[in-house]
């Protein structure tokens, strides 16, 4: 009983430390220690000769990971109780599976190689978790530094998986040093601990400070022609009781006053939030949509140079003879198919509309996972949060909205997409020199959810060295520098608009070119450890007790 209580306390300690390190009110340095209690628990179990090590490791790690998931993303309950339970439980299970596999690999190696396998398998898992249908990457370990961007300016080379590697690497160093403490002499013991931990913390912080200064100087040297003025609007409409119960024309009329308030700032672009026009219209017949005419009238006379990025629900029809996408829905009487999109459209001063369709969709809300298998059996299985309760359409390429002046090229990033680093690199490669995020964070009430969402976006700015203009229905609208600094914001539950000049950066960061190289590298390393462990098990069925 005493031994079981100790294990529970160790697992709970890891989970609690992870919660205490997380944005918004956490202290991120705690993440460098958070995994050590769980590592100690699992290694003691290994040394004591656990039977069924995979299940034991998975079970005890699940305790820690459930605390972490629930303690940091509990605000999902505001949007959907079933959705929150599913997200918290499934993510905890997936994470504990990885640790169970890592502990099984440890049985065939010494401690040092076992911990290396843990790191490789975890980072490889985070890489996969950014890409599959059940993606929920909110708790990628590298996100822990979102409120301290001055610590991780080197994300322009590694992205957030570099932060994950930093966290796990230091946990391994700390735990390994403590585990070996009794085997070293006093001088060797002190120098090893201070050397590993000091260099592991000090060098990345120093390099980050250096990069911060270099990038600040780069911004300061930009010519006036390399800057543009952006305005963000925040209409502050309740998504549960108001937003989806008014027509597009009334929504546009409501936005009209916000736009007119900031026209004297001479904005090049005005950003209007996700699904600001909530009732779908046919993209091929946009010129008959009354709401678009109202929005066009908001600035054409006073500021004809201003262009709009607007969030809307749109749809496209497909003829009966065409093979429809998997997301398409049938029209009545076998008259064809249609797709519904969460759309950002670019209203240019020449009246031409360009479209981008959100393509990183929220699982269970905007898309059914594994549709090829599930849809024929269960149909659309989604949570209705307004607007639509069927899978949305997507597009393959990242569209960039280029101003008629040719200088400003905006990446239209919609909501959830703002935490997918390599995905956003496609915008930069297609010429985007600034990021425009439109979102609707009102689903989570005044909780850490919308604050975390804004905070994680700061890391996207660093990874790609692009300034960000962010327009939220309600949540946090504002501006972020290419170094992740918050320049100006509108708080939650506030109606208004802001304008600011932002730098137009054209250089492409190493990360924007090569993406999540660390994820691919560690993924292959994890596969190597798995295969090598399998060979070792065949050759020697008895688990290793090597420390």
The gross shape turns out to be globular
What multimeric state do the chains show? single chain
Let me know the average pLDDT. 88
Radius of gyration: 25 Å
Strand tally is 13
Give the termini separation: 26 Å
Nutshell version of this structure?
The chain has 547 residues and is of the alpha/beta class.
Folded structure, characterized:
The chain is of the alpha/beta class and 547 residues long. The protein has two domains: 2-218 and 515-539; 225-310 and 394-503, Carbon-nitrogen hydrolase (Nitrilase/N-carbamoyl-D-aminoacid amidohydrolase, 4-Layer Sandwich), CATH 3.60.110. The protein is built from 16 helices and 13 strands. Strands 1, 2, 3, 4, 5, 6 and 13 form a seven-stranded mixed sheet that branches. Strands 7-8-9-10-11-12 form a six-stranded mixed sheet, with helices on one face. The chain is globular and about 75 Å long. The model has no long low-confidence stretch (mean pLDDT 88).
